[in-house]
Amino acid sequence: MRNHFRVFQIAFTYIGTIVGAGFATGREIMEFFTQYGYWATITIVLATGLFIWLGTKIMIISRRIQAKSFEDLNKHLFGERSGGWISLFMFVILLGVNSIMLAGAGSVFMEHLNLSYQTGLFVTMIGTYFILRKGIRSIMTMNSFVVPMMLTLSLVIISQTIHSPGSSRFLTLTSDHPLSYAWIAPLLYTAFNLVMAMPVLVPLGSQTDSHRAVKWGGIIGGTGVGFMLMAAHFAMSAQMPGISQYEIPMGSIANQLGLVVQIIYLMLIFLEIFSTFVANIYGITLLVQQRTTLSPRIITLGIMLFCYIFSQFGFSSLLSLLYPMFGALCLLWVLRLTLFGKPALRE
């Protein structure tokens, strides 16, 4: 029973780390999948297979080499020098992304709860600090509550959409976009999200005693990500093309399902931002801890202070410059992981 419980903790943490705010709003799914019509149904299946295979592989290799942070895995894949530089670049991107996530949490408080922007920032940072005092286990416990709520909401959205006139459009919807774009999109989406999740997937694998728990946690977690992708695509396809004009397409769907669903959806958007923020801060802290003699609490506070300062200004211009390079690095990283020694998967 204890091993089964650990499998689901790993699976839920995997899902919670991948499913960030962009996923919750539906914007990412619209851009990478739904806008390509019925081809998206097939490419989501492809993305799901990659999440199962490569996410599990990251955790198994991390467990085998007992990686302390994602830098250890990078050095294992790319060599000492190249792995170090790749980790440093990832560190900069993660700081930028976390600053934007923190800003997103502030916006949720300001726009939907009629509280100040600063209140949202401080609630997020204080909550993160106290959760991280217990390390990876506290992240797993948090996701054990958040992810079942996400999955339940996906089931509610499916049950409501299945009775709508456009429920079969996910199989028939056409698109004007080139077919090549439809097939490149899931590769980019999977690569980017796996690299962004790596700071927590590495310690998740290395700090788990059971190889079997890591393996099945990755399989169930990747399947869960695929299920939520398909649920959102199914719901948005039924309302295409009109729904594509919304900045938060899933919010538009939630608004049609009543006040209770709206409140739950709003709460989940914040919790998804929060859970991803916590996981990334934890992964960055492990990296800095390897390079300094500072205590983890001091490092965590320093990183959050940095994110707080830059959340006041936004990182948009910087990230618009770095993201294309980061996207190329993600594809290179996933290609290297794909081709890396298959015997590593055997225990």
Question: What does this protein look like?
Answer:
This protein has 347 residues and is mainly α. It has a single domain, classed as Hydantoin permease, CATH 1.10.4160. It is 79% helix and 0% strand. The longest helix is centred in the first third of the chain and has 33 residues. It comes from Paenibacillus campinasensis. InterPro entries: YkvI-like. Keywords: Membrane, Transmembrane, Transmembrane helix. This is Membrane protein YkvI.
Short description:
The chain has 347 residues and is mainly alpha-helical. The protein has 14 helices and no strands.
What value does the Rg take, in angstroms? 19 Å
- Number of helical elements: 14
Tally of separate domains: 1
Which runs of at least 5 residues are low in confidence (pLDDT < 50)?
342-347
CATH homolog superfamily: Hydantoin permease
Summing up helix and strand content along with how strands pair, one would put the structural category as mainly alpha
User: Helical amount among residues, as a percent range?
Assistant: over 70%
Number of strands: 0
Overall 3D geometry?
globular
CATH topology: Hydantoin permease
What is the strand content?
under 5%
Q: First CA to last CA: what distance?
A: 22 Å
Give the biggest sheet.
none
SSE string, helices as H and strands as E: HHHHHHHHHHHHHH
What is the second-level CATH architecture? Orthogonal Bundle
Mean pLDDT: 81
CATH class: Mainly Alpha
Transmembrane segments: 7-24, 36-54, 85-109, 115-132, 144-163, 183-204, 216-236, 256-282, 294-315, 321-339
Keywords: Membrane, Transmembrane, Transmembrane helix
Protein name: Membrane protein YkvI
Organism: Paenibacillus campinasensis
